[in-house]
Amino acid sequence: MDMHTVVNGEDVKRGLERVVVGDGRASGVTASDVLAVARGGARIELSGEALTALAASRRIVDALAAEPDPVYGVSTGFGALATRHIGPELRARLQRNIVRSHAAGMGPHVEREVVRALMFLRLKTLCSGHTGVRPEVAQAIADVLNAGITPVVHEYGSLGCSGDLAPLSHCALTLMGEGEAEGPDGTLRPAGDLLAEHGIRPVELREKEGLALLNGTDGMLGMLIMALADLDTLYRSADVTAAMSLEALLGTDKVLAPELHAIRPHPGQAASAANMLAVLAGSGMTGHHQDDAPRVQDAYSVRCAPQVAGAGRDTIAHARLVAERELAAAIDNPVVLPGDTGSGAFGSEGGRVESNGNFHGAPVAYVLDFLAIAVADLGSIAERRTDRLLDKNRSHGLPPFLADDPGVDSGLMIAQYTQAALVSELKRLAVPASADSIPSSAMQEDHVSMGWSAARKLRTSVDNLTRVLAVELYTAARAVELREGLTPAPATRAVVEAARQAGVGGPGPDRHLAPDLAAAEAFVRDGRLLTAVEKITGPLR
């Protein structure tokens, strides 16, 4: 399926993009499309090509449903109950029942953007022409998304195989007009009432359609795509805060020389070093490591910052490759395959429905866990730099805890406690979910990926990394300002000035720190940190 983003005049007025689902192939979907729908509220349209592909694959399912031989998902039960042949009079009930019974999630509601991402990705696969649903089913998903209706999806219920069954079932339940959903205003209401208000007819499921709505890796993939977008910002931000810490510690920027990183040719490492060097350009503070307290080398947390951040960048690159492959996939079980004859992609004279294992979430689960490890390590090294800035025995002339009147004032002592607690949590979250597997469905589904769990903990890790970097920013900015008589780099000055304008307080007597830390977190999270830097450096890598 080809997908692209277009904009029309009416959507521009409302600040909305419009994503068009295209030519019936599963390829061509971009991460930007997912983000536009999940976070930007982009409107969705199904092209004529997509509707044609849907109708063609549905004809294959209808033809197989009319045959006397049982076909999995069309005229049989599911999972461990797949051995029963279901007669035509019970098949609509079968599809309704699988949605109702599988909508068995528990726990808090997951975020709106997660639900929108998983629904959009399921729609993408439906429109590939490999699932056999009718065009009106796909259109109903688009209509629900466009109406701003968000099904209630719970934290727990997915084992990541067969895909994200329970989360997708809760979304399918809304399409049927059952269960609860949030309206555009965020109010929780009966789904049937919300559909009626927006003129959306509840879907009456037919053969295979209930199963096709449930069987995909869409939740974990959506969360992976959003995490990658967030980490792109955070890793560049980490280069900035690391450079500011190096500067505040009067470290040397010679270790960032391109020729040093060229002899160990990891691309992420080179990019990170180049970013740090760009931030430090014109600094009057670097190179003072031989002044009052001579030291041969800076500590690892300073000197090896590009190596650690660079390894994380390369991990992100691998995860992005996996996400792109999964975006190009049509995940369902069973799938509709075209026939060997006929001029169209799905000729009415051919085609078959086949069981498969493509719903297993291992490829996505592994990289979700890998990213959590990288995030934990980046947070860990940032915390070590913060601690060094606060320790008078290692900060090379800075006051203890950067306090205004040490002993009377505690300075940033407890800010580092908070950062340390966040890093400890990051380390716990780095334990891989995908290393676990619990059999289900009477041992028919005897190995699962736990990819949804990996994705959920990664979201927490990304949030906590933002806070860890905010504390380093807050500390380094104060330390730079306390280095009287030395001139920081223009990029550092720009960051400090922008942070102060954003409500991040500077040096002084003790005060309530939580508001300052919250302001620093927002400054990092919404990209203002990078905006301030890049006005001086140009785009960072």
From TrEMBL:
Superkingdom classification of source: Bacteria
Catalytic activity, reaction form: L-histidine = trans-urocanate + NH4(+)
Pathway: Amino-acid degradation; L-histidine degradation into L-glutamate; N-formimidoyl-L-glutamate from L-histidine: step 1/3
PROSITE patterns, per database record: PAL_HISTIDASE (PS00488)
Subcellular location: Cytoplasm
Gene Ontology MF term list: histidine ammonia-lyase activity
Coiled coil: none
Entry PTM: Contains an active site 4-methylidene-imidazol-5-one (MIO), which is formed autocatalytically by cyclization and dehydration of residues Cys-Ser-Gly.
EC number assigned by the record: 4.3.1.3
Record's keyword annotation contains Protease: no
Record InterPro entries: Aromatic_Lyase (IPR001106), Fumarase/histidase_N (IPR024083), HutH (IPR005921), L-Aspartase-like (IPR008948), Phe/His_NH3-lyase_AS (IPR022313)
Alphabetically ordered keywords of this record: Cytoplasm, Histidine metabolism, Lyase
NCBIfam families referenced in this protein's UniProt entry, alphabetically: hutH, PRK09367.1
Entry similarity comment: Belongs to the PAL/histidase family.
Protein name as it appears in the record: Histidine ammonia-lyase
Protein species of origin: Streptomyces pratens
Origin organism lineage: Bacteria, Bacillati, Actinomycetota, Actinomycetes, Kitasatosporales
Name of the gene this protein is made from: hutH
